[in-house]
Structures are given as C-alpha cells and as structure tokens.
Amino acid sequence: MVGWDADGYRLGYGGAFFDRTLAALAKRPRVIGIAYEQAFLKTIHPQPHDVPMDFVVTERGVYRREPQGLKFLDNPQAFSSPACYAGEIAPGYFGEEPKT
Questions:
Q1: Average pLDDT over every residue of 8-15
Q2: Which of 37, 75, 80, 88 has its CA 20 to 30 A from that of 61?
Q3: CA-CA distances (angstroms) from residue 71 to 7, 15, 96?
Q4: H or E element at residue 3
C-alpha cells in the first residue's frame, strides 16, 4: 500500500484494479494490507468503490479493522520482522563497500 488511513482504506497506485477485483468476487475474502507505518494518512478520502482492509501490517505490528476503525493489536509478542542486520552479518551483501 502506498498509504493507509485509520479506517483501513488504502491508497494504491491508481486505477482501482484491486478494489474492482474484490468487488467482482462472489465471496469477499479477508483482506490484508502491508505498508510502512510512516505511510499513515489522516484520510485517503475513500470513494464509494474503495474496500477497507481487514488487517494492516506494518513494521510496528498488526492493526485489525473494527466498527470504530483500525485497532492496533498491542500484543507482547512481536508480529513483524525485526530490523535487518544482514549488512553487519555479511558485509558487502547489499553492494556497499566493506568497512575496513
């Protein structure tokens, strides 16, 4: 997702292909969006054809859609991946110059 709001609506790349695909299905599936926490917007001004996410997963954790909007699942267990330290474990892995 390019952006997401407190009601679980997403901002994509335009065209509404994702929402039209969901609308065409006989049974609505559980919809999970993946985004950066920093991509949160106050509102995306959803259109009538927009479909809210049931869950939004960010590096902070998981949000679940409830009647009053998204709720952060403040669970002591970590849901998202820890920071990647591959550059420290394998210097040069990302193409950077190894430290000497």
A1: 90
A2: 88
A3: 9, 28, 39
A4: strand 3-4
Percent of the chain scored above 90 by pLDDT? 50
Sign of the CA dihedral running 74, 30, 50, 11: positive
State pLDDT tens for residues 64-89.
Answer: 999 999 999 876 555 555 555 555 66
CA distances from 23 to 18, 27, 28 (A): 9, 9, 8
- pTM value is 0.72
Distance from C-alpha of 71 to C-alpha of 67, rounded to nearest angstrom: 10
Token pair recorded at residue 54: 């049931």
Complete domains list, the chain, with CATH? 3-89 (3.40.50.10420)
Can you say whether residue 75 is alpha, beta or left, with left for phi > 0 and alpha for psi between -120 and 50 degrees?
Answer: beta
CB neighbours of 99 closer than 8 A, spacing ≥ 6?
Answer: 91
